[in-house]
From TrEMBL:
Residues 1-128 form the VOC domain. Coiled coil: none annotated. Pfam families: Glyoxalase (PF00903). This is VOC domain-containing protein. Residues 154-174 are annotated as: Disordered. PROSITE patterns: VOC. InterPro entries: Glyas_Bleomycin-R_OHBP_Dase (IPR029068), Glyas_Fos-R_dOase_dom (IPR004360), VOC_core (IPR037523).
Amino acid sequence: MSHIALVTADLDRFRSFYEDVLGLETTLVVGAGRGHARQAVVHAGDAMLQVFEVPGYDPGAHGSGAPMFERGRLDHFGFRVADEAALGALRDRLVAAGASSGDIRRLGPMFSVRFHDPEGFEGEVNCLDPAYDPSSVREQDEIVDPAWYRRTRRALGDRSLPTPPPTTSERNRP
């Protein structure tokens, strides 16, 4: 994936929250020009957000603030942190900013804390649960790729495992 594009009515407020509270890094701000408003490139590790400022944008009219899974095609996104200590520190910043209840939940092989940004968009921050037992997969769950747990651990930042070989569909892509 290259990037996720987001829209905000206030690019400065967006940057302040995502930089100061979540710890993301803005690497470029493009001034308004012919045919486009201001925009910023914001990095969360290797993931990139391209944030477009649209004056007068009303997030409530476009699904922000609606319950999870009622927000349209892009419901939420998750960032990762290195471990439980980093998740706890970030949770404390989110609570201090009034952006989270601070509840840390166990979600399969990860821990998660949810937040709402200043425009109401919900996201979450995750880290690997080192105590997760992959044999706890339920009978009704379908393991499509036997390397699922290794891939999930790598996606959550665990670099102690080698990259799994590409799947058949990945090998056949142009």
